[in-house]
Amino acid sequence: MAPEITLLPASQVAASVVLGGQGGPVLFAGCPELIGTPFSYGREEEVYGEGEDAEFVYKVIEGAVRTHKVLSDGRRQITGFHLPGDLFGFEQGETHRHTAEALTDTKVLIFKRRQIERAATRSAEVACQLWGVAASSLRYAQDHMLLLGRRSAVERVATFLMDVDQRLGGTGTFALPMTRRDIADYLGLTIETVSRTLSQLEEDGALQRTGGRQVSLRRARLRRVVED
């Protein structure tokens, strides 16, 4: 069960988080009343559980969050990884369809869902920005479906690494916040297949691992793996 959350007054939030930029407390530009409350989660700590009331929406400031669903046979399907700047937890219904957990020590901003919905009814700008969030989520889900249905193991892992790199700034060098098991449960592979594929890509010169989860990508070679 997720910890009890008490939203702070806007004045206290503004005092604890610097305005503006990716980590600013305001959710949407042009709507200063949508101010989030900072909250921290430890590694592997649950943010919310499947079936719980969807009262809040979350924005990642630092760290990373995974969302997943446990299937009837006990297998886990990870449905998404949420990285700094990402919004998650916005549901169509009244309850959460998936469980969300922090991958690492993670800081988020928490917004009241009803407040966002009310703002969208009053402001066309907020409604358009919400539409953009929904469209991005749909595109992400479609890309994931294509990845699982029509790509080989090597193509899945290569595409995944390029996507994470882009979302973490596109420098080509980054630390993976998720484990190989997480990657396997997201890509529909076994952990052994993910391990073999990473080793194969490294042998082919498409990436370099420098200890722990730190990787450096050779993006041109990875793109050839996906496009060939």
Automatic annotation (TrEMBL):
PANTHER family: CRP FAMILY TRANSCRIPTIONAL REGULATORY PROTEIN, FUMARATE AND NITRATE REDUCTION REGULATORY PROTEIN. The gene is fixK2. Residues 151-221 form the HTH crp-type domain. This is Nitrogen fixation transcriptional regulator fixK2, Crp/Fnr family. It comes from the Bacteria. It comes from Methylorubrum extorquens (strain DSM 6343 / CIP 106787 / DM4). InterPro entries: cNMP-bd_dom, cNMP-bd_dom_sf, Env_Response_Regulators, HTH_CRP, RmlC-like_jellyroll, Tscrpt_reg_HTH_Crp-type_CS, WH-like_DNA-bd_sf, WH_DNA-bd_sf. Residues 41-89 form the Cyclic nucleotide-binding domain. The lineage of its organism: Bacteria, Pseudomonadati, Pseudomonadota, Alphaproteobacteria, Hyphomicrobiales. SUPFAM superfamilies: cAMP-binding domain-like, Winged helix' DNA-binding domain. SMART domains: cNMP, HTH_CRP. Keywords: DNA-binding, Transcription, Transcription regulation. One of its GO terms (molecular function) is DNA binding. One of its GO terms (cellular component) is cytosol.
